[in-house]
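#onboarding

Welcome to the new folks! Below is a worked example of what a typical request in this channel looks like: someone posts a single protein sequence, and someone else replies with the predicted structure as tokens. Don't worry about understanding the tokens yet, we'll cover that in week two.

Example request:
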Amino acid sequence: MPVAACANAALASTASATAAETATVAPSAAQSMQSMNGLTMGTTWSVRLQADAAAIPDLQRGVQTQLDLVVAQMSTWEPGSDLSRFNRAAAGTRQPLPPEMRQVMDAAFALAHDTGGAFDPTVGALVNLWGFGPDGERRAPDAALLDRTMTRVGWQRLKLDPSGVMTQPGDAYVDLSGIAKGYAVDQVTRYLLAQEVPAFLVEVGGELRSHGHKPEGTPWRIAVEQPTSADFNERAAAAQPVVALDGMAMATSGDYRHFFAENGRRYSHTIDPRNGQPVSHGLASVSVLHAECMHADALATALTVLGPAQGWDYARRRKLAAFFVWHDGDGFKTRMTPQFRAALAQP
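Example response:
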């Protein structure tokens, strides 16, 4: 698909997909609220759902299978994944992508084009260079090494043909960590819908998507995590505002959980692919609401790279539901777009 057409397709919610994924199944009287949880992608997952207790073991296995599929295709931490094989491949290697990975790559290309490279799936070489990936040590690289690594970055270097075959240009290192976790949430959502689960809340590493209402008939109420003025190392978080997550997804990207300090300077795990440096602006976190968690995840990453001014302008132009938190002296300030404010839960 041409990049421009891909951008339009990926950034818009299609009516057919929305209709297919929001079909409502009425809960039976015997069903009650259940919980499931497990491990994936170096973090945890959980699902709260309305279902018969006897169905939970099979549903648990089914959810884990969906998550394992995403890891097997898109993890840079698994040497045998489709993505790791691509990253190791010699220049000119043509690798067919599984349908799920191709969908994620299409969305990644679209957002890379639309944000001028603020989101870039080839950022992996830089992620490793700064020590936030499976390879590398957490330390600031020298300028010459950074310059050499930057020659490996650039989403335009990748070629994905209409048949779903992607060509390795040579030393490209694709990292989908800014989008794949959100896709995993969507994958679990599709599975639960196929099993006719009438209401649920899926969470993978803090990224969420809901369907249906709780037994009392109200939407899922989600407190948006944000940093406090306490020491970052204490990882304190304030739980405001509260969103009514009514058939929507929410993802958050922030600099206050993953970072390292060296010579009195703090380096965020979020790397700007355009200059190769960890972001150094004042933005602490961004939360995004979207119909699909894959897009919420990627957009939160992109807005974090763009920063408090450019990110805000992009969110307003694209009419995104976004909540920004930025550093202000020893504390924080916040603001939200009108679309995000409209999703706030009523007191």
